[in-house]
Specification:
- By secondary structure, the chain is α/β, with parallel strands linked by helices.
- The chain contains 16 helices and 18 strands.
- Strand 6, helix 5 and strand 7 form a beta-alpha-beta unit.
- Helix 4 crosses helix 5, helix 5 runs parallel beside helix 6 and helix 15 packs antiparallel against helix 16.
- It is globular.
- About 55% of the residues are buried.
- Bound molecules: guanine and zinc ion.
- Zinc ion binds next to strand 5.
Length: about 475
């Protein structure tokens, strides 16, 4: 058993030849940060990127034990990162006709109440991870439910697949059905137990996860603050300023607070690696405080549109110096695809007369989100020393995309059609720690069984393309 675990986590060794796109920095700040290699190669040793460059430069000195997988003409990118979604909401997506507070009571809380059951949680964990991999997403930050079982099921499944994920047991002790409520003490103890069992095991991290101010008493927020103080490097996740009725309710519940963020500030929950979902209706003070404390504001465009929550002010947050991320927010959100999410983000920002330049969008889904969640030293880029999590993209995946491609002249135009028209159909394969964990049309492949064409460097000229 221990040997199997070590083998699963060590990662694979191989060389991939493809068109390669990665970002060495933020293209908004540094136009030279975009790295695109038309005939590129990346070599991977034990799940870690060893080298990236022109194929012609790397091929002559390639170690003879490295098998080459030729993916030309497809586009290899860092695996997408989804910094905010709900593992128990895969069967909440597309629930009709409500805004946030009613949506929670009518659809979401009853559904989440099922997740104390191991069979329910195990099945959903396997589904959501497969679906993310099919969409090219290799790392996600999950809310589970208040039941420890939901965390255990998700973590065990991610570990089995060798994925880097972040997940938290939701803390909530009021404002929902009894089946979903913990207490301040249980919220603390169960989060502590999750940290001890899972945090730092393989590629797993635990996030301290008070759901949002309306579902936690002050005693519970104090317990969350105690956990945050005891674990200063841990991520924290919650929701902030998503909906106007929610904000008014927070004002009623916490009459002493100067604004919504102040509630979280009071309990020491605003700091680096604290991820605040939505952040739509913020005051200038809240923006300045998020920036000063180096916390992250996560844009969830499909959710904001579906629930009619409002329009995120990306330009205002950047102007204030706030770190930002972009996420699906399944199941308020309606797509697992980060491509679709970026495409809908473009439209939501257009309604505020803001632009989302295409290179900034692709940076956001990869290195930008890695920075927002504090994992930018190991994921989000294809660079030596980084974990070999990749998505392989076919920009001509559908008839409609191929037709549009006929008029495309630049990389930026190609990428923009991809985020506007693309989704899981454009994801040819997904790699985690160098192992192929998804192949288009093939469903989830346990990595050890994935077919890998083996081509030696000398055979490269006639290599099989796929
Ligand atoms: N605020 C508190 N819980 C939730 C949730 O599950 N989804 C969304 N969109 N907002 C929330
Ligand atoms: Zn959410």
């Amino acid at each position: 058993m221990a040997a199997v675990k070590a083998q699963q986590q060590s990662g694979a060794s191989l060389a991939i030849r493809a068109r390669i796109l990665t970002f060495d920095g933020d293209p908004r700040v540094d136009p030279a940060a975009t790295r695109y290699i038309e005939d590129g190669m990346v070599t991977v040793r034990d799940g870690i990127v060893e080298a990236i460059g022109e194929a012609r430069d790397l091929l002559p000195s390639l170690a003879h034990d490295l098998r080459i997988v030729d993916h030309r003409p497809h586009l290899l990118m860092p695996g997408f990162i989804d910094p905010h979604l709900h593992m128990p909401q895969t069967q909440v997506i597309a629930s009709y006709g409500t805004e946030l507070l009613e949506w929670l009571q009518k659809y979401t809380f009853p559904e989440e109440s099922r997740y104390g059951d191991a069979a329910v949680a195990d099945e959903a964990a396997a589904f959501v991870l497969s679906e993310l991999l099919a969409n090219g997403t290799t790392t996600a930050v999950f809310f589970c439910t208040s039941h420890p079982q939901s965390v255990n099921s998700l973590m065990a499944e991610a570990e089995r697949r060798g994925l880097r994920i972040v997940a938290g047991k939701v803390m909530m002790d009021r404002g929902a059905p009894d089946a979903l409520l913990d207490t301040p003490q249980r919220g603390y103890d169960e989060t502590k137990a999750a940290i001890e069992r899972w945090h730092g095991s393989g590629r797993l991290s635990v996030a301290i996860s008070p759901r949002f101010a309306p579902t936690s008493t002050e005693a519970q927020l104090e317990a969350a603050g105690a956990l945050a103080a005891e674990h200063p490097a841990l991520p924290i996740q919650t929701h902030l300023s998503e909906n106007l009725a929610e904000i008014a309710y927070v004002k009623e519940l916490f009459s002493w607070a100067q604004d919504y963020l102040d509630v979280y500030e009071r309990y020491g929950l605003v700091r680096e690696k604290a991820l605040f979902g939505h952040c739509i209706h913020l005051t200038e003070r809240e923006k300045a405080s998020l920036a000063e404390r180096r916390a992250s504001a996560i844009f969830c465009p499909t959710s904001n549109l579906f629930l009619g929550s409002g329009l995120y002010d990306r330009a205002g947050l950047i102007e204030a110096g706030v770190r930002t991320g972009i996420a699906t927010d399944i199941g308020g959100g309606t797509s697992y695809s980060m491509l679709t999410t970026a495409g809908e983000g473009y439209k939501a920002l257009a309604l505020r007369h803001q632009k989302l330049p295409v290179l900034q969008a692709f940076h956001w889904m990869t290195a930008g989100n890695a920075q927002a969640i504090g994992l930018d030293d190991r994921i989000g880029r294809i660079a030596p020393g980084y974990e070999a999590d990749f998505t392989l993209i076919d920009t001509g995946a559908t008839r409609a995309m191929r037709r549009r491609l006929e008029r495309v002249e630049t990389l930026e135009e190609e990428l923009f059609l991809l985020m506007t028209m693309g989704d899981d159909r454009a994801v040819v394969a997904t790699y985690a720690a160098g192992r192929r964990v998804h192949q288009r049309g093939g469903g989830f492949l346990p990595a050890r069984e994935a077919p890998q064409p083996v081509v030696s460097p000398s055979e490269q000229a006639g290599a099989v393309q796929q």
